[in-house]
Amino acid sequence: MLLVQNIRISRILRNTWQVDLIMIASCTAAYLVREYLIAHHFEIPAIIPTVLGTAIAFFIGFNNNQAYDRWWEARKVWGALVNDSRSFTRSLINYVDHDDESAKKMVYRHIAFLYALKANLRGTVDEIYTKYLSAEDLAEIEKHKNIHNALLNIQSRDLQKLSKANAIDGFRFIEINEMLTRFSDSMGMSERIKNTIFPTTYTYLTKVFIWLFVVTFTLVISQSAGIASIFLGWMIGFVFVSTQINGMSLVNPFENNSAGVPLNQITRTIEINLLQMLKEEDIPEPVKPINEEYIL
């Protein structure tokens, strides 16, 4: 997630330089075609790029709006995980009678759940969660492809054991179990966002229309601007392309990039909070911003 208000122009160019070169080549080709092939035969009506530009603005605005909705939903899901994790730990610490080790074990397992879920969403191999699990838990989850779901199942089983041992009363059992249900809901919502592909036709057609607009704009403007139309065509195209790329960077909010939801920071913040609630001494450092510009 970006932290700065002003983005460096170098970052924008790093993301768009390949497209910029293609646009310059397209504008140059359009100028040469107009100058040497069609200049003496007919003129391109200015209404064509005007209408295309308006249509593209609507396309890009719609795409970016939908992309941000996906990003914001993902951020709300993980914001809920932060709140529910604190409530879950507070309930275990204060409501489980005379069984501090069981409560601590469940809190540790919850931290492992968060790291396993984060690794799954990012498509990375992150085995930090293993240090919070017992050998018995590790042996059990090896049989499962969905590790975070398996951990929730173990949590439910241990909560039932606490209830049978009268370490927790029925009302508080229901309250803690509902928190486990909310964790499952947040897990499912995160997986839905990750596995639901943004409609390909939206992005594909927008790209096609942008290239068509850049070419027709260059053809029209070259009638009065001459060779400067190459630069002007690129400049106008750069605005549309950059705006679209900015929106599309939010389409997959769990990707490990500067525009994604900062799962590393959120998970580490929860880990620190829960360990401090357990009065642990070995507390990890918070995740720090990269170049004071963004955080993962």
Structural features, described:
- This protein is mainly α and 296 residues long.
- 73% of the residues lie in helices and 0% in strands.
- Helix 1 crosses helix 7 (200-225) and helix 2 (47-95) runs parallel beside helix 8.
- It is elongated, with a radius of gyration of 27 Å.
- The protein starts with 8 loop residues before the first helix and ends in a 19-residue tail after the last helix.
- The model has no long low-confidence stretch (mean pLDDT 85).
Quaternary structure annotation:
single chain
Topology as a string of helices (H) and strands (E): HHHHHHHHH
Number of helices: 9
Give the averaged pLDDT, no decimals: 85
Low-confidence runs (pLDDT<50, min 5 residues)? none
